[in-house]
Amino acid sequence: MKQEAYEAIDRLSTETRRFVARLSRGCYLAGGFSTAAPTDCYPDVVARLVTTTLLWLGLPAMALAQFTSYSKNPKNILEGNWQSCREADGVYSERIYEHRVNGVPKFEVHMGPKREFAIFPGVQDEHRDHSSPDNLLKPYRIDVEGNLASHEWKIPSLNLVFSVTLAGGSRSDCESWYILLAPLNRASH
Asked: Which residues of the chain have pLDDT under 50?
């Protein structure tokens, strides 16, 4: 059992390791936050605690498709870390973000599987093929050389700029990406 626990710890992502370190420093208490500085602790305690618990129990497949938001700019639509991991069936995880403004569907962003990305105008229930001509991201699959990869797409029709960069901690069973989705034409202040 002890060896299984050590192996589970080795599989933790960098973000989860940071969370465990903050947890051990007392940033989180059972009933809420401690008096530690807000910059020392993450506000999404429950999600991280559940992820950490599942990983420690050896149930990583349930927590593999994850997006961790850490935007400091309220004008950004999405900013954070996306991780796509190989699930028990050998397929990499995917997550879809639906963007709506005042309840009206504007577009959907597909992150994964693995190193595929897609943005489609509108929102629909059926899954869309990333190689479809409706995908506004060309290329939709990012090439990785060594352990380096990044790409930026400008989508004037939706007034968006979308950039992805392969992040540290990526390995053969998981790829970790820093993503940023923001308005293309930002107002200057």
From this structure: 1-3, 5-65
CA gap 167, 149 in Å, rounded:
9
Task: Return the structure tokens found at 115.
Answer: 């190193």
Q: What is the pLDDT of residues 41-81, one digit of tens each?
A: 444 444 444 444 444 444 443 344 477 777 788 889 999 99
Could you tell me what percentage of the chain is helix, strand and coil, using 3-state DSSP and rounding each to the nearest 5? Answer: 25, 35, 40
Q: What angle do the packed helices 45-56 and 2-11 form, to 10 degrees?
A: 130
In whole angstroms, give the CA distance from residue 5 to residue 40: 26
What six digits make up the tokens of 153?
């797409």
Residue 87: CB atoms within 10 A of its CB come to 16
Tokens of 53: 């618990």
Res 157: pLDDT: 94
